[in-house]
């Protein structure tokens, strides 16, 4: 937990009470021809009240937006902490995202507009074409023995095949586990092992800032000691030479030639697993968040409809990678279930120049743009001149996700990118919640820069003390959700005890988000940040314990502690304190080696910004590392608070000595994805 002496991230980010109170911006209304879905704040409040008073009525009504093979019997069952939704219903998520759009005018509408990083590579897939590709891939998976309930790991760049593979898994009832292409062999191996996947889909590489990401090499390294994977399907993307294991590896294009282009989807139960997505927690081991079919799909779909107000004529761009939950819910399932057209881009925002995004918005006339604050901060830093060359008049709505957005950055986004005419929807949610939980409704909810504003329908969010009592406005506390919702995680994969322990035990009767927040006088939510040892680096969740175990796995390291410090671009940056083994000497070369080691183990996003070699770490008498003190050292702030539990009082001087000659690694590329 945060110590009250410390500066809160709010203060560091410059969110002050004064600033938040003055700014109250009417949400610009889109001047389109269609009627707004929600027309006033009063209507929102009435519907919100109803959704909490009669959740079953509300969700049953919403669930009519899904195509069912068989209707559910019971809307929800709640045996704390295990929820079931639309029990007895049968559906297929892929059919809802693809097949049902073929029956009407959307058949030849673009489902995916894709641009590769190398200039000039553009691919457009209509719903009809998407259907064919998904069916063929489904048949390839079946041909290689994948059956309902089997796990398939997807380790791909942002190319149409990533979306197609996810949908193909959903179609045959296989459970996909997408691993972010920026993760290295260590993280990949851990995820494959935990999910016991029998098949992996990867590529011969992907483009990122002009370079090629060696996905296949990484995968081969990850598979070296694993026996569960029998088949690897390889997408030909870069045509660069790759290692090959005969009998295990197959080129996907060759396999696609062998199968038919139609396939009858599996009838899945509402509560059948749809996917596992690993995310960071307080322990060194990532958690396998399990989502099921109907509730998840419905959550992703209705939030896309209301919060992004997605229409048939929109070109919608969520910049997230499919390796993250945002990519699952708001690149694939939400917008496609709505019959939208999604734009997908493979590469880096600054390749070949920092105007790349704006050029693509102009080229394709993108109308909805959803990205992360860390990206917006990078744009702001690169300067306005990169934007001013492009015509951004097609934009009508902007979104933000992943971390708190500084009010100044929000204003810049609103004014410079949105030209003051686009509402900015700051959306708060998590891998575990599956869909957006707190966000404004565009054109309706008055906006306050830096606040995710008000809860979505059916979401009973509150700020409480450790006993679960609601706190008055202005008081910081734990952000909880007080009742189950359709798109919530059902459990942690094969670890229901940890599920109960992590989410349902800290605050009695509530789902604990792990975030601290407060509400203002208007009931608006202000997210302060994580309360656990999870950091948010460039919009990505990283557990300090994961980085610590990666460091400790290096032969020169005896012990390591990792903390975060505020960073103007990344939100938070990693600072590592490392105790070396006797034989090792603290050289610059070793430091670089350790950074490279972490990149290999987890991925480049986890490379510590600073590594301090130290002789000791501040510990309590029971041996627990006092992170609060390390944070002060990392933040270069005065060490305050109670030091009486510190076992070795000389440690602080030793650490201060280490800090006086900060050993800072080379600057990272300005990106939020690697
Ligand atoms: C943080 C990403 C402030 C929060 C969808 C949460 C945010 C964690 C916001 C989940 C926001 C996400 N404002 N903080 N709008 N959105 N967060 O699982 O700390 O990758 O707990 O899901 O990101 O990260 P995750």
TrEMBL record:
The gene is acs. Residues 44-97 form the Acetyl-coenzyme A synthetase N-terminal domain. CDD domains: ACS. Pfam families: ACAS_N (PF16177), AMP-binding (PF00501), AMP-binding_C (PF13193). ATP binds at residues 402-404, 426-431, 515, 530, 541. Residues 546-624 form the AMP-binding enzyme C-terminal domain. Transmembrane segments: none annotated. It comes from Candidatus Methylacidithermus pantelleriae. InterPro entries: Ac_CoA_lig, ACAS_N, AMP-bd_C, AMP-bd_C_sf, AMP-binding_CS, AMP-dep_synth/lig_dom, ANL_N_sf. Keywords: Acetylation, ATP-binding, Ligase, Magnesium, Metal-binding, Nucleotide-binding. One of its GO terms (molecular function) is ATP binding. Mg(2+) binds at residues 552, 554, 557. Its EC number is 6.2.1.1. Catalyzes the conversion of acetate into acetyl-CoA (AcCoA), an essential intermediate at the junction of anabolic and catabolic pathways. AcsA undergoes a two-step reaction. In the first half reaction, AcsA combines acetate with ATP to form acetyl-adenylate (AcAMP) intermediate. In the second half reaction, it can then transfer the acetyl group from AcAMP to the sulfhydryl group of CoA, forming the product AcCoA. The modification N6-acetyllysine is found at residue 624. Belongs to the ATP-dependent AMP-binding enzyme family. This is Acetyl-coenzyme A synthetase. HAMAP family: Ac_CoA_synth. GO terms for cellular component: cytosol. Residues 109-485 form the AMP-dependent synthetase/ligase domain.
């Amino acid at each position: 937990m945060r110590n009250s002496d410390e500066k809160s991230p709010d203060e560091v980010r410059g969110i002050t009470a004064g600033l938040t109170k003055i700014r109250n911006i009417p949400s610009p209304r889109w001047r389109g021809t269609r009627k707004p879905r929600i027309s006033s704040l009063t209507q929102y409040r009435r519907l919100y009240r109803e959704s909490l008073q009669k959740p079953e009525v509300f969700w049953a009504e919403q669930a009519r937006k899904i195509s069912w093979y068989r209707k559910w019997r019971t809307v929800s069952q709640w045996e704390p902490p295990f929820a079931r939704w639309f029990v007895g219903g049968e559906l297929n998520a892929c059919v809802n995202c693809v097949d049902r759009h073929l029956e009407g005018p959307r058949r030849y509408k673009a489902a995916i507009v894709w641009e590769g990083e190398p200039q000039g590579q553009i691919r457009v897939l209509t719903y009809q074409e998407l259907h064919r590709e998904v069916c063929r891939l489904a048949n390839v998976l079946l041909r290689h023995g994948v059956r309902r309930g089997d796990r398939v790991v997807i380790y791909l760049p942002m190319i149409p095949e990533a979306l197609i593979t996810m949908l193909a898994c959903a179609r045959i009832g296989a459970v996909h586990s997408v691993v972010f292409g920026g993760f290295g062999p260590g993280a990949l191996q851990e995820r494959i092992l935990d999910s016991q996947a029998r098949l992996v889909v990867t590529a011969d590489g992907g483009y990122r800032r002009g370079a090629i990401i060696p996905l296949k090499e990484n995968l081969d390294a990850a598979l070296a000691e694993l026996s569960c994977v029998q088949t690897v399907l390889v997408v030909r993307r870069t045509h660069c030479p790759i290692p090959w294991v005969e009998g295990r590896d197959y080129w996907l294009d060759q396999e696609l030639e062998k199968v038919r282009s139609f396939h009858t989807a599996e009838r899945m139960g509402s509560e059948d697993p749809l996917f596992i997505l690993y995310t960071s927690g307080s322990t060194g081991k990532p958690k396998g968040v399990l989502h099921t079919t109907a509730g998840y799909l419905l959550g992703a779909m209705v939030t896309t409809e209301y919060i992004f107000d997605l229409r048939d004529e929109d070109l919608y761009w969520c910049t997230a990678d499919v390796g993250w939950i945002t990519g699952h819910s708001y690149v694939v399932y939400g917008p496609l279930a709505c019959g939208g057209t999604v734009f997908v881009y493979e590469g880096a925002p600054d390749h070949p120049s920092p105007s790349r995004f704006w050029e693509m918005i102009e080229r394709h006339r993108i109308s909805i743009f959803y990205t992360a604050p860390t990206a917006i901060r990078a744009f702001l830093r690169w300067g306005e001149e990169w934007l001013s060359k492009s015509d951004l008049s097609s934009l009508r709505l902007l979104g933000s996700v992943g971390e708190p957005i500084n009010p100044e950055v929000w204003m810049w986004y609103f004014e410079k990118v949105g030209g003051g005419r686009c509402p900015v929807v700051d959306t708060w949610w998590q891998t575990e919640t599956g869909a957006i939980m707190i966000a404004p409704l565009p054109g309706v909810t008055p906006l306050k820069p830096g606040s995710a504003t008000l809860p979505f329908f059916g979401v009973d969010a509150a700020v409480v003390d450790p006993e679960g009592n609601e706190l008055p406005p202005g008081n910081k506390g734990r952000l909880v959700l007080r009742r189950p919702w359709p798109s919530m995680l059902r459990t942690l994969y094969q670890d229901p005890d940890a599920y109960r322990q992590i989410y349902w035990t800290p605050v009695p009767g509530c789902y604990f988000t792990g975030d601290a927040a407060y509400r203002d006088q208007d009931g608006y939510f202000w997210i302060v940040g994580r309360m656990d040892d999870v950091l948010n680096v460039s919009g990505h969740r990283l557990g300090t314990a994961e980085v610590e175990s990666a460091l400790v796995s290096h032969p020169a390291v005896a012990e390591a502690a990792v903390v975060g410090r505020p960073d103007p671009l990344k939100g938070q940056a990693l600072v590592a304190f490392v105790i070396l083994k006797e034989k090792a000497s603290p050289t610059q070369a070793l430091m670089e080696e350790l950074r490279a080691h972490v990149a290999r183990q987890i991925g480049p996003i986890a490379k510590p910004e600073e590594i301090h070699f130290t002789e000791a770490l501040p510990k309590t008498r029971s041996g627990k590392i006092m992170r609060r003190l390390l944070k002060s050292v990392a933040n270069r702030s005065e060490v305050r608070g109670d030091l009486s539990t510190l076992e070795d009082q000389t440690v602080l001087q030793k650490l201060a000595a280490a800090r006086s000659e900060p050993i800072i690694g080379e600057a990272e590329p300005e990106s939020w994805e690697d």
